[in-house]
Design goal:
Layout lengths: L2 H20 L5 E10 L2 E9 L6 H18 L6 E6 L10 H6 L4 E6 L4 E10 L2 E5 L6 E4 L3 E6 L3 H7 L2
Parallel strand pairs: 2-3
Antiparallel strand pairs: 1-2, 4-5, 4-8, 5-6, 6-7
Helix pairs in contact: 1-2
């Protein structure tokens, strides 16, 4: 069996261990990656949910998963476990990404270099729906977009302080 298939199998097994730990909190498992940091293997898990995930929750999940991994003896010797939530630059790839951040401020980067920001109105039949400030809602096909990610509406942030 080649290493890539074996690694993918481990990621699936780890996902099965993790699902019962996060399901009651409606937390989604976005990515599981097994890597090597020299002599120590690393396991990186990215989790999120609508409204975000707090550090304390990540700590609780990390402890529970670490115990499960030890009991199941997934890694021989030491391993490094990293749990995180996606950053602002996390690219939206699935319908679930658009649903998770419905009504959030997003950035659309087009293949031609243009970029716009606005309120995420969702994904519908392969079209990203967005409401730019003081403009009518618009739709853009995913095919013309290089990347969709969260952004910060700096104008609204600065208005809150006034």
């Amino acid at each position: 069996m080649n290493a890539e298939l074996n690694e993918h199998g481990l990621e699936c097994r780890i996902q099965k261990l993790l699902e019962p730990i996060v399901q009651d909190d409606l937390i989604e498992i976005l990515k599981i990656h097994i890597g090597s940091g020299g002599y120590i293997q690393s396991l990186r898990v990215v989790l999120d949910r609508r409204g975000g995930i707090e550090t304390g929750e990540l700590e609780r999940i990390s402890r529970a998963l670490s115990l499960q991994l030890d009991v199941e003896n997934f890694f021989r010797g030491e391993f490094r476990l990293e749990l995180s939530s996606p950053g602002l630059d996390w690219a939206f790839k699935t319908d679930a990404d658009f649903k998770r951040y419905l009504d959030a401020w997003i950035r659309l980067d087009f293949h031609d270099g243009k970029a716009i920001e606005g309120c995420n109105l969702g994904l519908n039949d392969g079209f990203v729906q967005i409401q730019e400030k003081k403009k009518t809602p618009a739709s853009y096909p995913l095919s013309v977009l290089r990347k969709v990610s969260r952004a910060i509406d700096w104008a609204s942030v600065s208005q809150r302080g006034k």
